[in-house]
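The records we work with from here on pair a chain with its fold. These numbers are not coordinates but entries in a learned vocabulary of local backbone shapes. To see the layout at work, look at the sequence and tokens printed below.

. . .
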Amino acid sequence: MKYATRAFFVAAIAMALMLSACGKQPTLEINDTKAAIEAAQTEGGEKYAKDEVRALNDELNVAMEEVKTQDARFLKNYDRAKEMLTQVKSTAEALKAEIPARKEKARNDAAAALEAANTAIADAKALLGQAPAGKGTAADIEALKADVAGLEASLAEAQGLVAGEDYFTAIDNANGISTKAAEVSTQVTQALEKVGKKVEK
């Protein structure tokens, strides 16, 4: 009888410890997960992984709702919340590790876009050097030269953006410059064709 009573108390204590362990709010897991997301943001997540960071914060909010649900219960069990927090933390850490490669790609893409823009401007200037200088085209040619000068100034600004690591804006600006420079080239080519001149390569 004493043995049975002792076994009952041991089992009761074990059960109480188990319920206590399950019923303790996962403060450490919450803090670690928030820190992991913040680390990903600091690494550059807001710029190079904006959608993923937003998704991580959404998933964290879902996990915190589960924590609140358990907070309101008499018999609390935070196991599901812990699993959710662990998953979010793991994803955040993986994202942080990936961001430097994304940043490097953006840098390379910006450099390529700037190079393309520079080439497009050079091509437009070369064609302008061949433009017909007749009385009826002089004003148009001068206007196109002013356009190219403006594109060169814009290119310098785009290069400054790269220096400031604003790669995506630099890419957009450089692509716009390339498009406008190509339009100038097209207009000069058409003017040359009208007077029967061939474009010199």
In short: Residues 2-102 form one domain.
